[in-house]
Amino acid sequence: MLVGHSDTDSCRKKFSGSRVCFDGHDHDHDHDAATTSGARRHVEHRHCRTDRDKNVLHASHVTCGHTVQKTVTTYHTIKIEEPALYQAGGTTMAAGTVNASLTQSRAGKLIDESHGQADDGNNVPLVSIGGTAQLLRWFSGHARHLASGGKSVFTYEARGQGKTSLPVDDASLEMHSTDYARLASAFAPLASAQQADLCGFSFGGRVALAIAAQHPHLVRRLVLTGIAGNRRATGRLIIKGWKQALRNGCAQTFVFNSMLETHGKAFLEQNEHRIAFWANDVARANSVPGLLANITHSHQDDPDHPWSTPALAARVKCPVLLIVGEEDRLAPVEEAVALAEQCGWEVEVVQGAGHTVPLEKRHEWLALTQAFLAQ
Q1: Are 355 and 331 in contact (CB under 8 A)?
Q2: How far apart are CA 360 and CA 297, in angstroms?
Q3: pTM
Q4: Among 69, 185, 245, 339, which residue's Cβ finds the most Cβ atoms within 10 Å?
């Protein structure tokens, strides 16, 4: 069923000094936000069922509006989980609380009419898919900015990420693309829009690439960060080390090492004292089987494999922007640029950043993404 919920009092709350989370890391973030006492919200209700014998989907749709130049910012989260598809608006709640909080609500869909006419592609939703160990909350700060022009922004947590209850015996890119296609057809805001812009980082970039290749009718534009056609020896060895740590059941070791190997030099210098805390936080929020499945099943080093990055890239027809950090060890800048040039994509190299460009160089990444999606 599809559950709709609205809490206008919470939507009128003034947001300031919020916590922005990336990769499980909390960062203080202040942003201007006015109240939405004059915002108009309309909710309609109808049933929408999914097939319980298949991979049933769950979406927590979080809508928090604040008026900025008479525009209501809307951002959302989507999580694949059993046993149903949920849509909630009004209050931000942890993904784990959605079932208990909303099961008594009426079935329906939420229609947000408060942001009026949208231009420059703003009528097309944006769906963000994070990296291997990133959770729904990682994109919250970025989503507020990307949604400030009236665009609906969704963050998507895939099979194997977080504490998902979906089986991970098959966490291939083919399965991930099928998961998204099912959700896009069942989740009203995506189904009604027909197409969405996809924004994927690292693992999420490969998932987004697979979706665009396998289901081109669902994607208008694609923003990819931290992917390349060839990882080279360093990248391949890093991933082998991750797999070994996870096979030994060491989620914290995997996360700690991944932070050292993916963040740029300047970021590590600035945040050395935070790394251990972040590693513990991310490790607790994920499962070893889910992490290992996504790393093992979604990587294809053979360029001739039909689900390898070069093979998928060759099938993508929509406009693509590829963003890569100058110091990226998993997606070497030369290989990323070569892939983009081969496919006719736009490419941007961000100086002084490692693999995690959206975290390390947030403002540059947001500016590049917004400019590309506005075309």
Answers
A1: yes
A2: 27
A3: 0.74
A4: 339
